[in-house]
C-alpha cells in the first residue's frame, strides 16, 4: 500500500466539512414524505418560518415537536392504564406500550440520543435512531393481541409522520454531504501535487479488514499508462478508527508518472 502526505491531506479535507448548514427548500424534503402536506405544515410551523432555515435547524425543530408528542403520548398511556381496571388484555397492551415509549431504550430515550448525534453532525446515527423509534411506535399500535379503540393509535400515527421527517432530513443531509464531498475531493486532488492523477471516485467508510484484504490492487509504487482505471487503496485514521478510501486512477499524460501516488 502506498502512503503519501498529499493524498492524506486531500482525503481529510474531503471528510471534515460540515453540511448541516445547507439550506434546502421545504418541498425538497416533504416530497419524500408519505404525507407531504403534513410534512410541509409541520416544518412551516417553525417560529419564524422554515424559509432560509438550514437542515440542522429544521432537524432540531422536528425533534422538539416529536418530543412533545411522545411526552403527551406517555401521559395518555398512563391515563389508559388507570382506566383499564381488571381488563387484563388492555392492561398488558398499555403497559407494553409504556415500555416502547418510556423505558430505557424506548422512543423517548432514543430521541435523546438523536438530539446528541445531531449536535455531533452524525446523520447516519440520527437515521438509525429515527428508525428505532419507528419500530417502537409501530410495535405499540400494531399489537395483534389487542384491538385498541382509544386515541392512542392516532397519537402513534402522528408521531410516525414526525419521525419520518427526521429520517428524511438525515437522508437529504447525507446526500448533500456526499455530493459536495465528491466535488471537494476532485478539487483537492487537482490542487495537490498529484498533477497527473484525477480523483474520479472515492468511497469513505469504516470497512472491515476482511473487505480491505479482498480488494484488488497492484501493491506497488509504480503507475504506468497501462494501469489507468486501477483501484488504489489508501489507509488513514479518523475518529480513532482505521478507514480506507478507494480511489480510481486516471492518467492524463503518457509520460513518466512514477511517484504519482
UniProtKB/TrEMBL annotation:
Specify the Pectinesterase inhibitor domain's residue ranges.
19-172
Span of the signal peptide: 1-20
Mind telling me which Pfam families this protein's record contains? Answer: PMEI
Q: Which InterPro entries match?
A: Invertase/methylesterase_inhib, PCW_Enzyme_Inhibitor, Pectinesterase_inhib_dom, PMEI_plant
**Keywords, ordered alphabetically:** Disulfide bond, Signal
Q: Name one GO molecular function term.
A: pectinesterase inhibitor activity
Q: What protein does this entry describe?
A: Plant invertase/pectin methylesterase inhibitor
